[in-house]
Amino acid sequence: MERGWGRGLFTMQEYFSPINITGFSGAAGYTESSYGKRIVAYVQGAEFPSLENVHLAIIGVEEDRKALNNEGCGLAADYVRENLYKLYQGNYNARIVDLGNIKKGNTIDDSYFALTDALSQLLKKNIVPIIIGGGQDLTFCNYKAYTSLEQTINIVAVDSCFDIGDGEKELNSQSYLSKIILHKPNILFNYSNVGYQTYFVEQNAIELMDKLYFDAHRLGHVRANMEEVEPIVRNADVVSFDISSIRQSDAPGNGNASPNGFHGEEACQITRYAGLSDKLSSIGFYEINPAFDTNKQTAHLVAQMVWYFIDGYYNRKQDYPIVDKSEYTKYRVSIKDHNHEIVFYKSNKSDRWWMDVPYPPNHQIKHERHHMVPCSYNDYKTACNDEMPDKWWQTFQKLG
Question: What pLDDT band is residue 261 in, cutting at 50, 70 and 90?
């Protein structure tokens, strides 16, 4: 049933419809270590899950009215759940709730309001939302949920294009980025694209990325250097994963699927990197359309991607070097005739690297979350060769 929320205060439960788990294939065979038993779900006839001592919250979204060429993706969440619940928990004690599906509102703004408010409430409780289903325009709702936290954030989009669109027109799945850029108050510090395909992107869009000091990484380059995706994703607060970035043979369930894209294993690798990131606090899987999904192949793949994200989350190292740097090896590299010195930190716990980018003292509060930039050993080698790493320069320009 469609709902209209408009304005006002609502309990989170009012936004959601429960799940009918008994309709899932294999539900009768769930064991104690399968997610069908480990996840506390909002099911028909049961109470809404408590959010006390919860780490992760799954949210399905039925809204797909602005998913261009892909209406029907609002039905995706239950198909993904059906496969996710059959999978087994790793060597950790998962504390996960499944809040059900956010109902499609009377208007699309009602749906946006409900999702934004629900995400905001979860973020304030330090619960990481896992959004499944609907169009990628919902990334805008995810972004707006952070405004109440009063901090600037980084977004990483795994996508075959940039989705800039026309900022003067209505929000849709192919224009959400321009809405984020133009939104006031603006809390976006950095946007990174992972996996764009050049023939889907206008040259002026690539030029705009450069002007804004955003970074974009071509599919071919990324696939040849998958380990370089880890520091990109490690810098994100939000990851938005468009399933059309995966090649059609691996993920046919999408109205905009393409013959080229990431392989399924690579998609799982990226989401595990996201889970491992101490900084990342929300992730969304969008544009999954059951109407095109041969043998539920895409739903099965996304379920495994969610599994890898959860596995990464429970293997986080908690080694982001913001305050105490005693557990790090420090390296100083002078480049450009000693006009610049770059300070690197390598974690003794995880062997991961960061660069310390200086910024004006009066910007300390505004940018304290962004001056320590995740990087790789290759960035250190670049600096040792008297070259400025791109990540350092882009961040330096924005911090100034």
Answer: very high
Instruction: Answer for the pair 230, 217: CB distance below 8 angstroms, yes or no.
Output: no
Are 288 and 133 within 8 A, CB to CB? yes
Report d(CA 265, CA 390) in Å as an integer.
28
Q: How many CB atoms lie within 10 A of CB 88?
A: 13
- Residue of 365, 321, 395 whose CA lies nearest to 152: 365
Residue 207's pLDDT is what? 94
Q: How far apart are CA 52 and CA 125, in angstroms?
A: 9
- Overall pTM surpassing 0.90 (yes/no): yes
- Give the model's pLDDT for residue 1: 34
Considering the chain, tell me which residue range(s) the CATH 3.40.800.10 domain(s) occupy.
12-313
pLDDT digits (tens, 9 = 90+) for 137-165: 999 999 999 998 988 999 999 999 999 98
Q: Output the 3-class SS for 116-156.
A: HHHHHHHHHCCCEEEEECCCHHHHHHHHHCCHHHCCCEEEE
To which CATH superfamily is domain 12-313 assigned? Ureohydrolase domain (3.40.800.10)
Identify whether 185 is preceded by a cis peptide bond (ω within 30 of 0).
yes
Q: Nearest Cα to 111, choosing from 15, 1, 11, 239?
A: 15
